[in-house]
Amino acid sequence: MAYYIGLMSGTSMDGVDAVLCDITGNEVITCDSVSLPYPVTLLTALHSLCRPGTEEINLMGSADRAVADTFAKAVNKLLAQTGLQPDAIKAIGSHGQTVRHHPKGVPVHQGAVPFGFTLQLGDPNSLAVLTGIDVIADFRRKDIALGGEGAPLVPAFHQAVFSRPLASRVVANIGGIANISILPPAGSPEPVEGFDTGPGNTLMDAWCLQHTGKAYDHDGQWAAAGTVNARLLGRLLKDPYFTRTAPKSTGREHFNLNWLNHLLAPLNLAPEDVQATLLALTTHTLSDAITQNSQAKDVLVCGGGAFNSTLMRALKERLPHYSLTTSDQAGIHPQQVEGAAFAWLAYAFLNRIPGNIPSVTGASRAAVLGTYCPV
Length: 375
Description:
The protein is an alpha/beta fold.
């Protein structure tokens, strides 16, 4: 057994997933998992840090350690649940919590120097101390230093575990932001391709919270009660991000309620109709990215969106000639794929395996990713 734990908290900020994996070569077996929500006060601070404000450095410094504390609680709960001791785990791979992602930099008029960056919180030193396990973190900044987007990073993992001999495949990850990995047949000299397609759940979750007080639209039921507004959908789809060529990545810095409200302002729509239209935005941009960039007819769906049956039905309607299944069919639960990816990235770090794919991120070369924080 070679145990690794992967920690993932995505754009939706709904908490942390801790996934225990047994990794040998390219065989990744997910053994168990734990999900923990953020405390309300920390979640409020993290939402605040996603936009410019006052006292940002103080807030960021304390939130950095608070995220590590929540991550450590998830790890320790997972250890208790499985009966494993810390010394049974080779390493933790921690994604951290992204609060800003500007790989091409922010506008100079906002007072920034012209360097791109990405910022994830969750102090790996504190995490190592609180768990008694070596931690590998900060996976994205090496790719940005090499001129890349720093995202998405999961395609390297998807290639390792989901590619098949003789057949191409698309992996569609629907988290807060949706992304695709286009996998050539295993062993093929063709490059892996992939990019963020746009909003996954982030806009739907934010709109749902604002109008219903619920953190997300369970099974897409609220969206199903609404009607897609063609005028609003057309405005949303005109955003320049959707026609940009890859490599490209995005986040809630771009796709947020301010962006939505600006386009919604001239219209007077029922909240459920907006929710239905946001779901349509996700399915349109994701399906268009698949059909325009790959001839593969086999699509594996993972991430939280895989559990939204309304979204999955709409996606199948947009892709009638495709085989659309969840990653369960390939041996990994949809909610565990991203956590398993960061467990694999920790394994890759220790075994000096590149964790990025230049054809995906735009980096000048492949590189071993991560920063090592021993106990």
